[in-house]
Amino acid sequence: MVFTKNPMSAAMSGEAIVVPRVCQDKEQVDYEGELAVVIGRSARDVPKDQALSFVLGYAAANDVSARWWQKQGSGGQFCRGKSFDTFCPLSAVVPAAEISNPNALRITTRLNAQVMQDSNTSDMIFDVATLISELSRGTTLMAGTVIVTGTPSGVGTARTPPVYLKHGDTVEVEIEKVGKVTSTVRFE
User: Fold this and answer.
1) Are the C-beta atoms of residues 148 and 135 closer than 8 Å to each other?
2) Where are the domains of the chain?
3) Are the C-beta atoms of 38 and 93 separated by less than 8 Å?
4) d(CA 134, CA 63)
5) How far apart are CA 29 and CA 26, in angstroms?
6) Contact partners, residue 80, CB within 8 Å, separation at least 6
7) In this model, does residue 183 exceed pLDDT 80?
8) What is the pLDDT of residues 14-34, one digit of tens each?
9) What are the residues facing 95 on neighbouring strands?
10) In sequence order, what are the residues at sequence separation of 6 or more whose Cβ sits closer than 8 angstroms to the Cβ of residue 51?
11) Which of 6, 16, 61 is nearest to 38 (CA)?
12) What angle do CA 168, 149, 4 make, to 5 degrees?
């Protein structure tokens, strides 16, 4: 599945994830630790074997998701539930040259210091080169485009009972060699 996020969803490490009032009528806001790939130059119809040459760098990302808006509130279209302001915290970008293999990095998500996700980018359904190649087919990925690559198991909504973000929580997504993005949660 492919979807876009509003550019205003981007936030830097240390900035709060601000949960808007429209997401507070029920518990629904979730974390998703992911690898972010930053495109360094415009890319269109990129062959897979050349795809990594278009990468400027990598970052740790939290693809914050309001599950009701993602699934019911927008007719099953993910864009709204994932595009609220501050719903994509990102770490600093590490230059691509410093990451020899983006498909072999440990990724860990912690909620209030408790490990919730612990996996490796080798478990992604599609590797980074495939994502860039496929997403650029017939479409220009402009320099500065950020691709978030999907999340491993352990998201809050899939737990029994579900675990959703609460006011005052701290979420950390750490990726080996890439860095860490840390955010507190603040209800508007």
Assistant:
1) no
2) 7-187
3) yes
4) 20
5) 9
6) 66, 69, 70, 73, 74
7) yes
8) 999 999 999 999 999 999 999
9) 57
10) 43, 128, 129, 130, 131, 132, 133, 136
11) 61
12) 80
7-187: CATH topology is Fumarylacetoacetate hydrolase; domain 2 (3.90.850)
Residue type, 150: G
DSSP codes of every residue in 4-31: ---GGGEEETTS-EEE-GGG-SSS-EE-
- Which three-class secondary structure state does DSSP give residue 58? strand
Residue the block writes with tokens 């415009």:
42
Residue 80: CB atoms within 10 Å:
16
Residue 73 has pLDDT above 90, yes or no: no
Residue with tokens 């005052």: 168
Specify burial of residue 40 (Cβ count, 10 A radius: 0-12, 13-18, 19+).
Answer: middle
Q: Single out the residue of 85, 88, 87 nearest to residue 35, CA to CA.
A: 88
pLDDT digits (tens, 9 = 90+) for 91-137: 999 999 999 999 999 999 999 999 999 999 999 999 999 999 999 99
Q: Residue 60: what pLDDT? A: 98
Q: How many CA atoms lie within 13 A of 20 on its CB side?
A: 14
- Distance between CA 91 and CA 120 in Å, rounded? 18
The pLDDT score that the predictor gives to residue 79 is 82
